[in-house]
Design a protein that fits this description.
single chain; alpha+beta; nine-stranded antiparallel beta sheet; 9 strands; globular
Length: 265
C-alpha cells in the first residue's frame, strides 16, 4: 500500500507548475511520469548537492534571511531558507519575492493533510526552468517549503512552491519508503539512494510530513513559526466543483497570498 500511495502522490505533483494533478488516468499518467524522469537518468546523481543541515527544525540564526508569508484573512507564517544546500531554489524564490511576483497570487491547490501550493505562473529568475537540488539532510517534514515542478528533474522548476501539511510521516514505514525510492532510481540507471537515520525517523514521528517525496523534489525551506496557519489553510473549504484533473483541491473562497517578504532574522 505504501508503494501505491507513493506512486499516486508523486504523479499528483507531476505537472504541478500548471496546477495539474493526475487522479484521472492514473495508470497512463504514472507511466508517462516515469518516462519523463528517465530522460534525466544520465544527470540524476549530479543533482545531489553537498552540505548538511544539522537540524531542519531548528530556528534560524541571527542575521539569516527568512521568508514571511502574509496570507489574506488567515495570518502570517515564517520560513527558514536553506541557501547552503539549495542555492538555486532559494535565490530564485528570494528574487521572485523581492520583485513582487508572489504579491496577490492564489493558493490554487490545497489538499488536506498533504500540501498547500501557490506561486503563480512566473518564469524563474533564470529565464527558464531549472534543476532540482536533492540533499539527504532535508526531508518532507511537516512545514517543509519545497519547489513544485513538472516531470523533469533537470528543467522543471520555476515559480511555484508547496508547503507540506501532512501528518502521515508519523506512522510511515520509513525503511520501506527509502528502499522503494532507491529502487526507482536504480531502475532509471541512477546511483541515488535514500537512507533514514534514527534522528530523521524520530523527527517524522514527532512532527509528521510526507516522506514519499524525499530525494525527488527540492526542499529549500522550513516553517518555524505559524504552522497553525498552514494547517488552517490546509483545512480550508473547497469548491464543490472538482478541478480539471478530478481533484477536490480548489479553495472556496479563494485564498490570497498577499505578499512574501524577505527579511533578516
Amino acid at each position: 500500500m505504501k508503494v501505491i500511495k507513493f506512486i499516486l502522490i508523486t504523479v499528483l505533483l507531476v505537472g504541478c507548475v500548471f496546477a495539474a494533478g493526475c487522479k484521472k488516468n492514473q495508470k497512463s499518467s504514472s507511466s508517462s511520469a516515469r518516462s519523463s524522469s528517465s530522460n534525466d537518468k544520465s544527470t540524476a546523481s549530479s543533482l545531489v548537492t553537498e552540505g548538511k543541515i544539522e537540524n531542519q527544525l531548528a530556528l534560524p540564526q541571527k542575521g539569516e534571511q527568512i521568508a514571511v508569508f502574509n496570507v489574506k484573512n488567515y495570518g502570517t507564517f515564517k520560513c527558514r531558507l536553506f541557501a547552503q544546500v539549495a542555492p538555486k531554489a532559494v535565490q530564485n524564490f528570494i528574487g521572485l519575492a523581492q520583485n513582487g511576483k508572489y504579491d496577490g497570487v492564489k493558493f490554487h491547490r490545497v489538499i488536506e493533510d498533504f500540501m498547500i501550493q501557490s506561486g503563480g505562473n512566473s518564469d524563474s529568475i533564470y529565464g527558464s526552468g531549472f534543476n532540482v537540488e536533492l540533499n539527504q539532510s532535508l526531508h518532507h517534514l511537516k512545514g517543509a517549503l519545497c519547489a513544485a515542478r513538472t516531470s523533469s528533474q533537470t528543467s522543471g522548476q520555476s515559480s511555484q512552491f508547496y508547503i507540506v501539511s501532512s501528518n502521515n510521516g508519523k506512522t510511515a514505514d520509513l525503511d520501506a519508503v527509502a528502499d522503494h525510492i532507491s529502487q526507482e532510481y536504480q531502475k532509471r540507471g541512477s546511483k541515488i539512494t535514500l537512507e533514514y537515520s534514527d534522528d530523521v525517523k524520530n523527527k517524522y514521528a514527532e512532527v509528521g510530513g510526507y516522506p514519499w517525496l524525499d530525494m525527488q523534489y527540492t526542499v529549500f525551506g522550513q516553517v518555524f513559526e505559524g504552522l497553525d496557519i498552514v494547517d488552517k489553510i490546509s483545512n480550508c473549504p473547497k469548491s464543490s466543483k472538482l478541478s480539471s484533473t478530478g481533484e477536490n483541491s480548489v479553495p472556496d473562497p479563494e485564498i490570497i497570498l498577499e505578499k512574501v517578504e524577505i527579511v533578516v532574522y
